Amino acid sequence: MHPLQCVLQTQRWGPLASVSWLLLRTCRAHSSVPSTACPSLERQQEDGVRKDFSSRLASGPTFQHFLRSASAPQEKPDMEDPPPYLTVDELLGRQRKVYLETYGCQMNVNDTEIAWSILQKSGYLRTRNLQEADVILLVTCSIREKAEQTIWNRLHQLKALKTKRLRSRVPLRIGILGCMAERLKEEILNREKMVDILAGPDAYRDLPRLLAVAESGQQAANLLLSLDETYADIMPVQTSPSATSAFVSVMRGCDNMCSYCIVPFTRGRERSRPVASILEEVRKLSEQGLKEVTLLGQNVNSFRDSSEVQFNNAVSTNLSRGFSTNYKPKHGGLRFAHLLDQVSRVDPEMRIRFTSPHPKDFPDEVLQLIHERDNICKQIHLPAQSGSSRVLEAMRRGYSREAYVELIHRIRESIPGVSLSSDFIAGFCGETEDDHLQTVSLLREVQYNMGFLFAYSMRQKTRAYHRLKDDVPEEVKLRRLEELITVFREEATKANMASVGCTQLVLVEGHSKRSATDLCGRNDGNLKVIFPDVEMEDVNNSEVKVRAQPGDYVLVKITSTSSQTLKGHVLCRTTLKDSSAYC
Question: Where does the record place a coiled coil (predicted)?
């Protein structure tokens, strides 16, 4: 077999528009680890497996086969219909143990749960002990260079683990999943020969096949970006059995094409799940006793369910006033306001959050709904990225500083007491000292409760990479970042001081990491709240003293704050409905 063989296949196994590709390499031909002698019987068995796989692969469908079958859309592959070069038995996990590590955003946490759901159904077992794992999968982030370097460092550590693997055990397989796999593709296979599989964000259904191919001693990859994959029919398996909250992915991809952002190239175009499938997942989470759901998407509030024909009318999208898009106006479909309305009705005792939104997609009807519903958290993430209109234009954000500030005022008028958070980039291409000072002034003007601030890291494939110059020296970026962090903390402390003396509803998460005698939870604004673990009254039964448990709602009177944490003393255990009389 040629060292690098490309096998094109369709999803069951067409159409051509959904062609995925598979990279196959013989491990022995390219391994940097010298092979050791083995008994002749073992060598004969390995050669037999390899020849059997090669013969089945060679006798499989040709490229012409896919051209002929490309016209008819077909279903996705399943365990009953394996590809021609694998048997159903080879797709089974056979109780091999999988160790999963997650890096990056909340979407990657949800992706981990989706990947595990797929593998679990294929007969794999989950382990939290790295040493006993047969398969190690890293769900990766590619948003900044530092995030990727973390993965390269981790692979270096795992290389030693794989090299020391006893020959008496099942060979250890290592896979890279998610955005880094999608961005770097074969560069990972070329640089790290010990990586066995790559799977992009839209290829998790293919994990059983990729692992089956890897078992034959080949490297395998599926990095297809789909126009319609949302994993709507897959119920994610919660990775933490004691969790009180869960992430629910409602859409994937992004169409905004901001000049600095790699997401459209690693996650693909926007596509949304059907509302019905989202509501079904939220209902199941409610039945499991979870008390908080965060709706996820790269541009979550641009949600548009076009699956129901009767709603695909010519009505255009309502944007925030003074905002524009980098793409043609979209029409029809069930929008984010409808989804938020329906999700909030599933369980009045379940809190609803959403992230990450774009400022352009906050029409008045969304703000009004957040104000009206008690279980929709009064917390909005509003990524600004810069306080300079000139830099915002270079970033292709679709708004000016003035339009952004006007939206802030409208949000605070519509939702009294709302908690605001934001993202900022220090040292973007062409950013001057004056541009930087405008960002500083925006931080002071708005007084965000939470912030996520980073130095600019240029990414290949982005518009900035092709058209702009990364001309701000690294030391200047870091100095500006430190200044932004300092100002943010000063202003956040001032903003949080307004909570002192107030009673707030807190969802208990568990014991504080710093003190076994304290509990921690999060308030409506998503700020961490610390309070003593003591007996308290229950509003529904004042004669009984109780201790708060994870998943309980409690009322806490705030006594002190910092830029990131509130502290107070607990008053009583309550419900979300009953708390409105106190907060």
Answer: none
pLDDT in tens, 327-345: 888 888 999 999 999 999 9
What is the model's pLDDT at position 282? 97
Tell me, what amino acid is at 505?
Answer: L
Mapping DSSP to helix (H, G, I), strand (E, B) and coil, where does residue 396 land?
coil
pLDDT of 76: 43
Q: How far lies 549's CA from each of 244, 519, 566, in Å?
A: 10, 9, 19
Measure the CA–CA gap between 575 and 568, rounded to whole angstroms. Answer: 19
DSSP letter at 329 equals P
- DSSP secondary structure letter of residue 245: E
3-state secondary structure of 322: coil
**Is 310's pLDDT higher than 50?**
yes
- Is the pLDDT reported for residue 36 higher than 90? no
Instruction: Of 517, 514, 520, give the one whose Cα is nearest residue 534.
Output: 517
The torsion defined by the Cα of 185, 188, 194 and 200, in degrees rounded to 10, comes to: -30
Torsion on CA atoms 210, 213, 218, 224, rounded to nearest 10: -30
Query: Which residues lie across from 7 on neighbouring strands?
Result: 22
The DSSP symbol for 246 reads E
Query: Could you tell me the two tokens for 528?
Result: 């961490």
Question: What does the alpha-carbon distance between residue 462 and residue 131 come to, in Å, rounded to a whole number?
Answer: 39
Whether pLDDT at 33 is above 50: no
Predicted confidence band at 32 (pLDDT cuts at 50, 70, 90)? very low
The mean pLDDT value for 427-435 works out to 98
> 447 near 492, Cβ under 8 Å?
yes
- Per residue in 343-394, pLDDT (tens digit) is 999 999 999 999 999 999 999 999 999 999 999 999 999 999 999 999 999 9
Cβ neighbors of 444 (< 8 A, separation 6 or more) are: 487, 491
What six digits make up the tokens of 294? Answer: 């965060």
| Structure letter (DSSP) for residue 431 | -
The type of residue at 213 is V
> Domains of the chain (ranges plus CATH)?
54-222 (3.40.50.12160), 228-377 (3.30.750.210), 502-579 (2.40.50.140)
In the chain, what is the greatest distance between 2 CA atoms, to the nearest angstrom?
A: 79
| Contact residues for 193 (Cβ-Cβ < 8 A; gap 6+) | 27, 30, 31, 32, 33
